[in-house]
Amino acid sequence: VQLQASGGGLVQAGGSLRLSCALSGRTFSDYAMGWSRQAPGKQRALVATITEDGETGYADAVKGRFTISRDNTKNTLVLQMNSLKPEDTAVYYCWAFPNYWGRGTQVTVSS
C-alpha cells in the first residue's frame, strides 16, 4: 500500500485548506482510513477517521471545522479544513488501517 498526501500550505487564521490522499497498490474501499497530525514538539495525534462504509469520527479539537470524506471511485481520501486556527499548524499524515502511512504534508496557519 502506498499513500500520497497533498494540499498542505500556508493559510491565515480563519481560512480553509483541503488535503487529499491517494492510495495505490491495493483496493481503496477495503480500508478504514484517517488523518493524524504532529505539531512541533508534540506527539502525533489522531484528527479524523472514516470506515470502509463511510462512518466518520473526529477529535474534539476539530469537530465542526474539519470534514473527512472518501471517494472510492477515485481512490481518494479528503480532509476539508475550515475555520483554521494557528494551533492547527502541524504536519498532517494520512493513514490506512492497520498501519500504512503516507508522507506528511505541512499545514501552517498564521495568526
- Mean pLDDT across all residues, rounded? 96
**Approximately what portion of the residues adopt beta-strand conformation?**
over 45%
* Helix share, percent: under 10%
Strand tally: 11
Radius of gyration (CA) equals 13 Å
First-to-last CA distance: 37 Å
> Could you name the ranges where pLDDT drops below 50 across 5 or more consecutive residues?
none
Oligomerization: single chain
Shape field: globular
Mind describing the biggest β-sheet?
A: 7 strands, mixed
Order of helices and strands: EEEEEEEEEEE
Outline:
The protein has 111 residues and is mainly beta. The chain has no helices and eleven strands.
Structure characterization notes:
With 111 residues, this protein is an all-beta fold. 0% of the residues lie in helices and 53% in strands. The protein is built from no helices and eleven strands. The strands form two sheets. Strands 2, 4, 5, 6, 9, 10 and 11 form a seven-stranded mixed beta sheet that branches. Strands 1-3-8-7 form a four-stranded antiparallel beta sheet, with no helix packed on it. Strand 4 (33-38) and strand 5 form a beta hairpin. It is globular, with a radius of gyration of 13 Å. The N and C termini lie far apart (37 Å).
Main attributes of the structure:
about 0% helix, about 110 residues, mainly beta, seven-stranded mixed sheet, four-stranded antiparallel sheet, globular
Topology:
Layout: E1 2-6, E2 9-12, E3 17-24, E4 33-38, E5 45-50, E6 56-58, E7 66-71, E8 76-81, E9 90-96, E10 100-101, E11 105-110
Parallel strand pairs: 2-11
Antiparallel strand pairs: 1-3, 3-8, 4-5, 4-9, 5-6, 7-8, 9-10, 9-11
